[in-house]
# Entry
Amino acid sequence: MKHGMGIAAWTLVALACLVAAPRAQAQGTGAAQSSQQAQPAQRPSLKNPGQQAPAPSPVDPKEEAAYKAFYVMNPVSQADYDAEITAGEAFAKNYPKSRYLPSVYSRLTNAYFEKHELDKMYAEAQKTLQVNPDDVSVLTLVGWVIPRDNPNAPDFAQKLAQAQQYETHALALLASLPKPPQLTDAQFAETKAGAVAQAHSGLGLVYFREGKFDQSSAELQKATQIKDPDPTDYFVLAVDQEKLQKFSDAAKSFGSCAQIASSLQDRCKQGAAEAKAKAANQLQPPKS
# Structure
């Protein structure tokens, strides 16, 4: 989130923050779906509520093997994500009616996000939500990315409305999300808190883009109540508070942003000093 600069410059800084999104938030939760056959041990993730186990069907050993090989991938580097994309796209092509497609599409959504290929990310997200409209991590991720995308795009207003729907739906799902058995209580609490914060962050940015600074401020205050908050959220929160003439609050938010190492750190230090000066002037009695 950016301050005192044009929207275009704000977008560039915000896009740079996309890389820092916690993978726990960005991972596709569709991967938790399993068949009646033996599966690899599941990694920590959120399981969507109400998701039904796939109906029994004849098992194709090649399909099972291909999915297991894809599922155990744990990409870290850009080359790893390239490999995951290659494997996922091949699986979707070879098994277009597979019970595992929700998981594959969800993972591809995240992989393209990590590669900064947003058009392909959106395409995979659409596929995911067509087959599983309750995929929490795709909803939160895409709703979080949209308001950070190019505001000059001709369909940006429609995308903002879509992002608001995604994050609102995600928060409703998260409110009653049961703990997956593969997660400890601590893992579940941390993962769920991160997903909730990401959804509030997405909503906060949507409202900011729409000039609804009061609503944006309320959402971003919730988004920053986690262990490792996004400095961008603090930045935009501070801008909201300045727009609302709450300069003391803005100084605190800029100060919180300035304490986090990021490309925004210097701007936040400057913003904190300026907001403190405005707060001091605000308290001075008018001259007679």
Q: What stands out?
A: Residues 29-33+61-134 form a domain with the Serine Threonine Protein Phosphatase 5, Tetratricopeptide repeat fold (CATH 1.25.40). The two ends are 39 Å apart (CA to CA).
